[in-house]
Amino acid sequence: MESNTNMIGFVPCSSWSSATSTNSRAKACSNNKLVNITKTKTNVKSTVVMLGNRDELGRVMVATPFGIIRRDPDTLPPMVSKAAEMSANDFTDQTRLRELELKLQENRSDKKLSALQELCFFPPDQALPLFAKTLDTSNDELARSQSVFGCSLFFDNPQQEAATMSYETVVKALLNDSSPTVRSSAAGALGYVKTGKSQTVKLLARQLLEDDDWLTKLCLSVSLGMLGDPTAVDILLPELKKYNPAILNDDTLILQGIIGALGQLKAVSALDEFQRWVNNPDRFLRTQLAESLYNFEDPRALSMLNILANDNEESVKRQARMSIEFLQERSGGKQV
User: Fold this and answer.
1) Predicted confidence (pLDDT) at residue 26 exceeds the cutoff of 70
2) What percent of the chain has a predicted confidence (pLDDT) above 70?
């Protein structure tokens, strides 16, 4: 059975306050509050055909503080569901828009998040200014994060002015927001860019070197992989080489993001570097490495997978064997 909810792409656990300690944030990530770095095999179709604002299963895309999800409109809050069903002519009367603007000024976070979610279905000239205003004026990090992802829904809008405004608003949040929570959301949102990828890759690459927050750097790495531009390898691979694979690194989550991104980019030039990480003490990093290696039809990748398939940790072994099976399926059932 197909799920009526699907998280699109990578979404970090960006709900943590900037005041949250590094240790507790890292612990939250290691407790599976981090959506899979590259891909997770689920019962949801890997490619979903979008038919207008809906996919082939009738689901719509909606922003949350943690990313973009696909939902059956009937499962959304009543007013959000109603907005999802409205036609362009229904937005001529701006009474509801003014009501939402007032909701965004309330103290209760749930009220603001519901209003922002409803705005996802409004025309861009009505929704985007309120997303931008929230980012400029709200003290609520969750509301600002959701505004970032709300903007990303308009990245490929046919109205060039809307597409430009949505992109520039998210870039502004990445560069200027004081909260690592919001900057990491902006970094994640930019992974959804469909046009102007070269410009976005340069921006993300620069921020990967300049931003000092680990979650933001993780999201920047993952988005570089999502964008699929091979020029990102020239930034990601040198970053990976800076670390000592023989020790347990404090930046292990960043390293997992980089390894996952290099896998998505099918960076064959990274395979020799990957070999240095096969025996890293962090089982989560080794699991990520095993997952990334299924992208490569290269004897070096298979050699590493055979080592990881005999790892002491069950999760690493399981992922390595899954990757080997995947490579065999891709080769038409032949032994690889």
Assistant:
1) no
2) 83
Whether pLDDT at 312 is above 50: yes
Question: What is the rounded average pLDDT of the residues 309-328?
Answer: 96
Q: Are strands 54-55 and 50-51 parallel, antiparallel or unpaired?
A: antiparallel
Residue type, 278: V
What pLDDT is attached to residue 128? 97
71: β partners: 5, 60
Length of the chain: 336
Phi/psi at 59 (5° precision): -85, 150
For residue range 269-279, list pLDDT tens digits in order. 999 999 999 99
Cα end-to-end span (Å), the chain: 32
CB 48 within 8 A of CB 55: yes
Q: How far is CA 274 from CA 209, 237, 269, 286, 292, in A?
A: 21, 10, 10, 10, 10
pLDDT tens per residue, range 172-202: 999 999 999 999 999 999 999 988 899 999 9
Q: Token pair for residue 229?
A: 């531009």
**CB neighbour burial string for 4-25, b if at least 16 within 10 angstroms, e if fewer:** eebbebbbbbbbbeeeeeeeeb
The DSSP element (H or E) to which 182 belongs, if any, is helix 180-189
Residues 162, 128: contact at Cβ < 8 Å?
yes
- Give 104-141 pLDDT, tens digit per residue: 999 999 999 999 999 999 999 999 999 999 999 999 99
Question: Phi/psi at 61 (nearest 5 deg)?
Answer: -95, 135
Secondary structure (3-state) at 180 = helix
| Own/partner pairs, 213-216, CB within 8 angstroms, 24+ separation | 213/180, 213/183, 213/184, 214/22, 214/25, 214/26, 214/251, 214/253, 214/254, 215/12, 215/13, 215/14, 215/16, 215/25, 215/180, 215/181, 215/184, 215/253, 216/180, 216/183, 216/184, 216/187
pTM over 0.85: no
Amino acid identity for residue 176 in this structure:
N
CA distance 73 to 158: 23
| DSSP 8-state assignment for residue 33 | I
